[in-house]
Design a protein that fits this description.
Layout (H helix, E strand, L loop, with lengths): L2 E3 L8 E3 H5 L9 H16 L6 E10 L4 H5 L12 H17 L5 E5 L2 H12 L12 E4 L26 H9 L11 H20 L9 E6 L1 H12 L7 E3 L24 E9 L9 H5 L20 E9 L35
Parallel strand pairs: 3-6, 4-5, 4-6, 7-9
Antiparallel strand pairs: 1-2, 3-8, 8-9
C-alpha cells in the first residue's frame, strides 16, 4: 500500500492515499428535481437561450381552394386556378399572419398559379415600413405537387383500387398499354425534390443570414408534396430535440410517428419554431443568394441536409385554420374561378352614396 508521511507535527502520520482519492457519493435527484429538469428541457425547445443561438419561424402552407378541388379532379402538375373562395381563404391567412407576426422575410412557392397566387395574397397583406427591400415570391418547380401522370385532369373515381393490389399496381395493369400512358410520380422522386429544396434553398437561411429580427419563412405548396417536405425538414433534427406545443397530439393516443402529422386543408398551415447554433457562413452572403443559390451537389434521399445536434424544433400548429373562422362560401360564385378583373364580392353589398 502506497504511503506518505505528513509534515504536520513531530510524530509521523500514515495516510492512506486510496482514502484521499475517494469522492463522496452524490445524492439521487428527487422527484421534484427530475420534474424541473424535464420541464426546463421542454421549455428550452420553445424558448431557447439567446447566446449564440438563432431562431426561425417556418410556415408550410397549402394553396387556397381550386376549381379542380371543387370538381374532384386530379390536379398535380395541372395548373388549376383558384376559386373565389380560394382567394378569400388566402386573403384571410395573409391578414392573420400580418396581425400576429413580424413581417415575412422569405417566401417560396410552387410555380403553379394556385400556389403563386396564394403566396402573393399573403405578401399583399404585409406592411413594409422599415425601408428594407420588398419581399418577392421565389417560384420553384421542385415544389410542385405530385405528378399524377395518366390521371391528371381525370375525376377521382377514375383511379380504381384493387383490394388485392396496391393502387399503383392496379392502375398500371389496367392502363399501361394505353397510348400516352404515364405513371404516377413515385414517393422516392418527391423525396428527392424536397431534399433538394432543403439543401439548395432552406439551408442557406441557416448559414449566416443575420438580421435583428428572426427570419419568418413561408413555403406555399401542395398537400402531398408538403407532407414529403415536412419529413425532409424533420430529418434535420434528432428525435429528442423535437417537441409538440401543449395541447397538440400525434395521431390517436400519440402512437402515430411524427413523420405523419396529417393532411393540409386549403390554406391550412404547419407552424414550426426552429432554434439552431450559429453556423459558419460564406463571406458576403446576402438574401439575394437565396433567390439565386449557387449550384449544390444533388441531394440524395438517404443523405439530406442536417443541423447540429443542439438545434431544436418545436411544432406549434398543425393544419392551422384559425383564419377561416366565420368564412362562409358565397352562394353561386364561391366555387367558380376567380376573375381578377371583377370587383370583390363585398363591393356588391356596400350601400351607394346618394346626394
Amino acid at each position: 500500500m502506497e504511503k506518505k508521511r505528513s509534515t504536520k507535527g513531530r510524530r509521523p502520520m500514515v495516510v492512506d492515499l486510496r482514502q484521499e482519492k475517494r469522492k463522496p457519493r452524490l445524492a439521487k435527484p428527487t422527484a421534484l428535481q427530475n420534474i424541473f429538469k424535464r420541464t426546463k428541457r421542454f421549455l428550452g425547445l420553445f424558448f431557447p437561450p439567446r447566446r449564440n443561438v438563432r431562431a426561425m419561424k417556418l410556415y408550410l402552407v397549402r394553396h387556397g381552394e381550386t376549381v379542380d378541388n371543387v370538381a374532384q379532379i386530379y390536379a398535380g402538375v395541372r395548373d388549376s386556378p383558384l376559386t373565389v373562395q380560394g382567394v378569400l381563404q388566402a386573403e384571410r391567412l395573409g391578414r392573420y399572419l400580418a396581425a400576429s407576426e413580424q413581417p415575412i422575410t422569405h417566401v417560396f412557392s410552387s410555380d403553379l398559379q394556385r400556389a403563386v397566387k396564394t403566396a402573393e395574397a399573403l405578401l399583399s397583406a404585409q406592411t413594409n415600413n422599415d425601408g428594407s427591400a420588398p419581399v418577392t415570391v421565389r417560384q420553384l418547380p421542385i415544389l410542385r405537387e405530385q405528378d399524377f401522370g395518366f390521371y391528371e385532369g381525370k375525376p377521382f373515381y377514375a383511379r380504381q383500387r384493387d383490394s388485392k393490389k396496391s393502387g399503383k399496381d392496379a392502375h398500371r395493369s389496367q392502363h399501361q398499354d394505353e397510348p400516352g400512358f404515364q405513371d404516377v410520380e413515385s414517393k422516392e422522386s418527391m423525396s428527392i425534390r424536397t431534399n433538394a429544396f432543403v439543401a439548395e434553398y432552406l439551408s442557406l437561411l441557416f448559414r449566416g443570414l443575420v438580421s435583428e429580427q428572426p427570419p419568418i419563412v413561408v413555403i406555399v405548396s401542395h398537400g402531398i408534396i408538403l407532407s414529403h417536405l415536412w419529413r425532409s425538414i424533420l430529418a434535420m433534427f434528432s428525435k429528442h430535440t423535437v417537441a409538440l406545443a401543449p395541447g397538440l397530439s400525434v395521431g390517436s393516443g400519440g402512437v402515430t410517428p411524427l413523420e405523419y402529422l396529417g393532411g393540409w386543408s386549403n390554406t391550412g398551415y404547419l407552424e414550426l419554431n426552429i432554434s439552431y447554433p450559429v453556423l459558419s457562413s460564406r463571406p458576403g452572403l446576402t438574401p439575394n443568394d437565396v433567390a439565386s443559390p449557387q449550384p449544390a451537389e444533388k441531394a440524395k434521399q438517404e443523405n439530406p441536409f442536417t443541423l447540429p445536434a443542439s438545434s431544436r424544433l418545436a411544432i406549434r400548429t398543425v393544419n392551422g385554420k384559425e383564419h377561416l373562422r366565420g368564412l362562409k362560401r358565397a352562394r353561386g360564385v364561391g366555387s367558380s374561378q376567380h376573375d381578377e378583373g371583377q370587383k370583390k364580392i363585398e363591393s356588391f353589398f356596400k350601400k351607394t352614396k346618394t346626394g
